[in-house]
Structure formats: structure tokens, C-alpha cells
Write a structure and sequence with these properties.
Elements (H helix, E strand, L loop, with lengths): L2 H4 L9 E8 L2 E8 L5 E7 L7 E9 L2 E9 L3 E10 L2 E7 L14 H5 L4 H4 L3 H6 L4 E9 L5 E7 L5 E9 L3 E7 L7 E7 L5 E6 L2 E8 L2 E9 L2 E10 L5 E8 L4 E9 L5 E8 L2 E11 L1
């Protein structure tokens, strides 16, 4: 799940049935959950720009993710199925429907905009047509007996391997190697953790990201590229150890941006104020509980 895009940014949703997020008083995001706290439906209602509508439908079997349906006003629909076996997960999807249309013409806007609940997703004509197409294996994830991922492979509709990601572990270190057919796009990330499993450091190419904690709370994140500090984030918390302020310094602009968070009586986010170069945006959260 892309947490930035869908705004699934809180830890425990078990008491929540629905969340609506308003951007500058306009409804932008709808999130719906089952009684186990799993997201079952998310809608983006022009949250990221005019004419941009998107929906996600999540289905589960015994709390394990079984399928994800994604619909977008500009790119159409896709569906992924998850098949589990010992130490392996396989992901299947359908071959895409080829459409000849101009980029950013939003040909699926009317269809996606009309979907406002999980039940309505399945009535999509585009999705129904998509399911008539051939289904193929797109991804294989392999795990060790401890449940840690060891390898992930992606394939194209013809079964050819496109990418391979390898994971290896030592006591406090994790190495991730990303491989493609083009060595220019290959990469490696090395992550270091403390004794409590908290991420301390990440290194990839010419970039190093370090993390500083007080107890279990992250208080600072610093990004250094080619030996130069490019960005730093400082975090402040309330008495309940919930994030109240994120202060970001961006060296390219020589400017500091401050994000502010407020919470309701149940401890869920009530409002967020995000500061960017373009100005300050206000987001308000509205809840329905089980």
C-alpha cells in the first residue's frame, strides 16, 4: 500500500469503520475498514489534482490479503491476486487492456468518480472486461522460516523475469540488492538496526540516511548526499507519544517547513497542517466508529 497516496498513516484502525479526509474543506479521501482494522476500500477524490480519481478495493481470507483492485481515472483498472504457500507468495494479475488515448485525457474519469464503496467496484464495466483476459504470474516472493523475505522476482505477461530483489541479513544489518537487465538501474541498499530493531542507518549509491531516537521515538532523520546534508527532519511528540510537529529543513531552498498534527479524544488524527513551498494546506479528519 502506498501510504502517502492513500493516507493510511495511523497504527490501529480496529475501532474505525470509515474515515473521510477533507483538504481545505473539500472531501479528498474516503477510507473504509473491516472490524479487524484492515482497509477494505479507499477512494482518492481529486486529492492529488483536478480530474484525478482513484479507488482501491482490498479483500481478505482469514485476515490475509487475497486481492487488490485498483482503478484510476487516467489509466483504468487492474487486479492482483495473492496465493500463499509455505515460504512463498505468488501474485497474479490480468493482461492490461490496450487503449489508444492521449495521455492525461482521463477516459475512465466518469466510471471511477461514480464508485464510492467496495460493493460498487465490482460493477465496473472495465473491470468486468479485464477479468475476461488472460491472467499471469507477475511476482514471486520467497521467505525464510522466520518470515523474512529472501527474494522477490517480477515477470512480464510472457513469463520473462524483469527484476530480481535479493535480501540478506546479519545480526543488525539488512542488505537489499536490486537487479534488472540494465546494470545502470541496478542498486544496493544497506540498512543498520539497533538492538531493539529500530532503523539507524541506510546507505544507497551516494546517499546516506541516519535516524536518531529517544527511547522508541524517532526524533531526527538526516539525509546526506555526496557528503552534503540535503534534508533533515525533526519530530516532536505529545504526552501520549503521538507526533505533533515535523520540522523539515531543505538545504536546496535553505528553508524550514513545519507540519502540525492534532488528535481527537480517541487518539486518532483530527487535523494535519502541511507546509510546502506553495503554502500551507489544512486536512481535517472525520470518523465513523464500529
Amino acid at each position: 500500500m502506498d501510504k502517502d497516496f492513500t493516507w493510511l498513516n495511523q497504527n490501529d484502525y480496529k475501532s474505525v469503520k470509515e474515515i473521510k479526509i477533507y483538504k481545505q474543506s473539500k472531501l479528498g479521501i474516503i477510507q473504509q475498514f473491516d472490524k479487524s482494522g484492515n482497509p477494505i476500500f479507499v477512494k482518492n477524490n481529486e486529492f492529488n489534482g483536478d480530474d484525478v480519481f482513484a479507488v482501491w478495493d482490498y479483500s481478505y481470507q482469514s485476515d490475509k490479503l487475497e486481492s487488490i483492485i485498483f482503478g484510476h481515472s487516467n489509466v483504468g483498472f487492474s487486479e492482483s491476486y495473492y496465493v500463499y504457500s509455505k515460504n512463498k507468495t505468488e501474485v497474479y494479475t490480468y493482461e492490461e487492456i490496450e487503449d489508444n488515448f492521449d495521455a492525461n485525457s482521463f477516459p475512465y474519469q466518469k466510471e471511477v468518480k461514480s464508485i464510492n464503496s467496495k460493493d460498487e467496484v465490482l460493477y465496473s464495466k472495465t473491470l468486468i472486461n479485464l477479468k475476461k483476459r488472460k491472467r499471469f504470474l507477475i511476482q514471486i516472493d520467497e521467505y525464510n522460516d522466520a518470515g523474512k523475505i529472501l527474494r522477490s522476482i517480477t515477470k512480464n505477461p510472457k513469463g520473462k523475469k524483469q527484476t530480481e530483489t535479493l535480501y540478506s541479513y546479519s545480526k543488525n544489518t539488512e542488505k537489499v540488492e536490486y537487479k534488472t537487465d540494465d546494470k545502470n538501474f541496478d542498486g544496493e541498499v544497506i540498512k543498520e538496526f539497533n538492538q531493539n530493531g529500530k532503523l539507524l542507518n541506510e546507505k544507497y549509491r551516494n546517499t546516506e540516511v541516519s535516524y536518531l531516537y529517544t527511547g522508541n521515538s524517532l526524533i531526527k532523520k538526516s539525509t546526506i548526499e555526496s557528503g552534503k546534508l540535503t534534508e533533515s527532519e525533526t519530530y516532536e511528540y505529545n504526552a501520549e507519544n503521538k507526533l505533533t510537529r515535523k520540522i523539515t529543513f531543505v538545504s536546496d531552498y535553505d528553508k524550514t517547513f513545519t507540519d502540525k498534527y492534532e488528535y481527537n479524544k480517541k487518539g486518532f488524527i483530527k487535523s494535519v497542517q502541511i507546509e510546502k513551498m506553495e503554502g500551507i494546506s489544512k486536512y481535517d479528519y472525520e470518523y465513523i466508529y464500529w
